[in-house]
């Protein structure tokens, strides 16, 4: 029985090893598709659980049947909710948040850019519990950012548990992020585009297919458990005539300017308060949000009920204008002071109220039908998300999926593009996520060469034609090595302390022997050759993990190594670890040029 158990264990180990080698290749589409599907169900389950917790607490604590019904709370409770939530968040951060500066989408982007998508269980629980407290307590944050972080964490932790190569971990992180958006809005295609546009920042078949399957799986699970209820109640809206184009152009420019102002305000608050510990910042945020909520209770929580009213034209122009700036200020304070939550929901809110305001003005100045105000609110939603998050395609696709109306595409594209150009080119603003990273002292850089290298694992290009030798061998052993080992290209050399030191191409040894033969000065067969002393081109060795990708190999070549030997991650410091193969800088360059 014990022997059978050992055999089974070895068989599984060999199977997993073969799986990891296959996934290190950039074209392992079928395996990635299967893993993406599993990630979608896993991330979708996490999102469903999060929504179940938040919405049931809101149903229990808030009056009426609407989970966002903070307006129906008494004045005292409206003031108390954000403060109590902030005290709970302060306690949580004081105990558990050391070393984590941001959460949400910005955290996922930072981990993808500099840590190969590795996310931890600790930040998963911080995001889950912290965002639930913040949303239930009425802070002006969205649920989509937490959904993205939780879904991405589910994908990352799943991949880490299988010890998959880092290029595959990145794909499963993006798959989890897509699942988060899909299960949040019932918009599976927008989830895919958001993951590729914002998280992965690339469009390739090997990433598109698993991300798409993950989004579908999460959406199906969400519908099966939570129902097919849309996030927003959108009336029948359409583009009526080209006479509306001037209003659409103005709306795009205005939304772009407000998006830039939103970005600047949030960045300013975040940067200027970094001297305070996070627990003090969230307490300050709670007090300010409580004060704002006394005058504008609609801005408390996610605010989808208010977005629905704006789409249905149920607010007056003065209320819409007031809510626009109240929500902008409340969200900037909540997010800027470190309250864990998302920015996509608030961006939808601000865009809807601002678009509704423009719709009212258009109805006064250009004889636009007042019932058509929801059309401008919808365009404002897409434009605000596209401009503030610098994700125009995801914003357009979200608007399309929310309306199921092809006539919205042309005006939606125009509004989103103008808003994006206004924010990025006129006001020189980047996305809210990048602004949050930089205001917290974290740089963010995107390099197209690094993007390609991140998608290829070292296991897919290593040479396993190796032999490990001590530095001293006899002439006979050297000759036999050349003549009898046709499948050896590289010699791993131990130094006098039996530690790996250098990599010697076997052609260099052959060249040395040939030179001696031509000089008619053949050494006796028992004479010792010091492979670390003979005239030859040797490369300094450093270890690299089997899970690493070519970006990590490239960074090692830039800083410390001339050649790399590949070992399993847990054995990087073990001199007796199994060596899978070697990598040279030339191998990385060839892989990139393919």
Distance between the termini: 49 Å
Low-confidence parts, pLDDT < 50 over ≥5 residues?
A: none
Helix tally equals: 23
| % residues in beta strands | 5-15%
Rg, nearest Å: 29 Å
Q: State the share of residues found in helices, binned by percent.
A: 55-70%
Morphology call: elongated
List the helices and strands and how they pair.
Blueprint (H helix, E strand, L loop, with lengths): L1 H22 L5 H33 L13 H22 L8 H10 L6 H16 L7 H18 L4 H20 L2 H13 L4 H22 L18 H28 L5 H18 L8 H8 L5 H20 L7 H22 L7 H17 L2 H12 L5 H18 L5 H8 L8 H7 L11 E5 L1 E3 H10 L5 E5 L5 E6 H13 L9 E3 L8 E7 L4 H10 L3 E5 L13 E4 H9 L1
Parallel strand pairs: 1-3, 6-7
Antiparallel strand pairs: 2-5, 3-4, 4-6, 7-8
Helix pairs in contact: 2-5, 2-6, 2-7, 2-9, 3-5, 3-11, 4-18, 5-6, 6-7, 7-8, 7-9, 8-9, 8-16, 10-13, 10-14, 10-15, 10-17, 10-18, 11-13, 12-14, 13-14, 14-15, 15-16, 15-17, 16-17, 19-22
Brief characterization of the structure:
63% of the residues lie in helices and 6% in strands. By secondary structure, the protein is of the alpha/beta class.
Provide structural commentary:
It is a single chain. The chain has 594 residues and is an alpha/beta fold. Helices cover 63% and strands 6% of the residues. It has helices at 2-23, 29-61, 75-96, 105-114, 121-136, 144-161, 166-185, 188-200, 205-226, 245-272, 278-295, 304-311, 317-336, 344-365, 373-389, 392-403, 409-426, 432-439, 448-454, 475-484, 506-518, 550-559, 585-593; strands at residues 466-470, 472-474, 490-494, 500-505, 528-530, 539-545, 563-567, 581-584. α22 links the parallel β6 and β7. α7 (166-185) packs across α8 and α10 (245-272) runs parallel beside α18. The chain is elongated and about 100 Å long. The two termini are 49 Å apart. The mean pLDDT is 84.
